[in-house]
Amino acid sequence: MKRYAEESYDLIVVGAGMAGLCAAVSAARHGARTALVNARPVLGGNASSEIRIHISGADQSLKQPDYAEGGLLYELMLENKAVNDGFCYSVWDAVLFSKARDEQNLTVYYNTCMYDVETRGGRIEAVLCFQQTTEMRYRLSAPLFADCTGNGTLGYFAGADYRTGSEARPETGEPHAPDEADNGRMGNTILIKAADAGRPVPFTPPPFAKKLTEHQLRYRIHSGRMKVDASQAPDPEEWLRLSACSCKGVDYGYWWLELMGDGDDIITDYETIRDDLYAYAYGLWDHIKNGGDHGAENYELVWVGALPGMRESRRLTGDYVLDENDILGHRVFDDAVCYGGWCVDMHAPRGLLDFDRLPSDCRHFSGVYTIPYRCYYSRNIPNLFMAGRDISTTRLGLASTRIIGCCALGGQAVGTAAALCARYGCDPRGLAPRVRELQQILLRDDMWLPEPFRNEDPLDLARTAVFTASSHVPGGEPQKVANGVSRRLGGESNAWISDGVAPGGETLVMRLASPARIAALQLTFDSNFAYPVRITMSANRQAQQRPGVPAELVRDYDAVFLLGGRETGRAEVRGNRQRLSRPTFSPAECDTVEFRFLSTNGADRITVFEVRAYGEKEGAGGARE
Predict the structure, then answer these.
(1) Which of 463, 466, 421 is nearest to 618 (CA)?
(2) What's the pLDDT tens digit per position in 74-130?
(3) Which of 17, 147, 550, 589 is 20 to 30 Å from the Cα of 428, by its Cα?
(4) Domains plus CATH for the chain?
(5) What is the sign of the dihedral through the CA atoms of 233, 237, 238 and 239?
(6) What does pTM read for this prediction?
(7) Cβ(408)–Cβ(73) under 8 Å?
């Protein structure tokens, strides 16, 4: 039986965490024949059912909800929210599986490990892979590759330049860098989950469990009954912050159950770290159950992770290296294709074993910073992109950009950029002169970028249209749907907001500057970023969410095309549950489009952030719904 195959694609993405998945789906949507090589049986990486880290991002756990990540990541989370109110990680896995399966230009290789790379003249020609479940060997070739492995494994095998550990302050000028470079790194974590059984449940630890004491855990929140004495902490202010944001119950945790090993290379130490984490996870639960009153008498352990989530290893070097000064200075790059907003979050050097230190030391800031396109491709491997935690940053830069929400946005940017490279026949660096085109496509696909970036798409006919409406509230005038900003920012709504919902619905009218044949429409609705929609095991985080999809989302609407007052076509949307809606319809000649909004998913007014319209040729450029 043949157990070897060769396949070729426009783009090969290695690694299917949220960065890799978003890169692959985005590239496929924009026309690139894409392969996604996934060593695991499920998609999502650290956010999958195997590891179960919930997706955090620039909103800083609701401290600045205006900056929540949109784009493909938010689309996935909304889809999950519509079908998975019970926070089941298996259903979340299915949502990701379905999204990848639906992309006709995407082939996913599950349970497939890349074990070698072929290069010629400094370029990657192919990756060699083995699919364990079928015993198949593959040689997958492409002109473009994306390293979304987290560890930078593809780049490492290909000879890409990379960094590990901390840079010295004299090299980078970063205020919190060490005086001398070192091999510091944040560790790996195993999570655990418990449930209230409604009756006392005993626990007998396995013989390999490593014992922990209350004194050793005094700076790590692990009980709803734990008393917080900030005066005794090494950093009282940071201790109070950690206490406020930690999941204080005993049902879910613990991100600080973290080890980085004793060797020089956290990657080669992975299995040793995994064994130690496993032992400490059971030892921690033994302490919670049997080491004093932690409010856990009725709780039983229902899940222990067996695959540690990694925070830090290699960082591949691009044409630019993002650093702490860029982050704390809120730098906006001309070639920005992503943004971040998480704090500069450095963990204790020895993780759990640093018993006398707080588990995390965060450098907080308000607002966001941007990440330039130059951080997403290798400086010495000309056909290599990277996305995720292995992008081009210093260690202090990584401390913020490693957050899953930021990684996912970067993945979408890389996938879109790769599709453009395939279209123009260029390498990643060769696309740099066209970065404004890339930025406009990202904005069109609901990947917000901060000012001065906004919709300036010359193909969007709505930008020159005049909008009127059946009603609006002060500050929610209809013309705002064409102001180029597709979300609420501070006190500015950037939206048309109706004054209630009339019995027959509310109407928004778009009058074009001149008659045109419309082939594509897209509308961006309010979903209220103040309420999260992410999958999570934390009861505290679950309680922040509302049942079902966001009430503010428009559910049912029609788009009626008119020419000289005569109807020439229409699109009908029923049961919408997405923020970005792209209705399907036959192209129609018109001078006016009437949007008739019939109902929301529960809100008492209609809110539309943006309307776009494209002609027949231009309509093919956007990602499909």
Answers:
(1) 463
(2) 999 999 999 999 999 999 999 999 999 999 999 999 999 999 999 999 999 999 999
(3) 17
(4) 4-164+312-444 (3.50.50.60), 188-304 (no CATH), 461-621 (2.60.120.260)
(5) positive
(6) 0.96
(7) yes
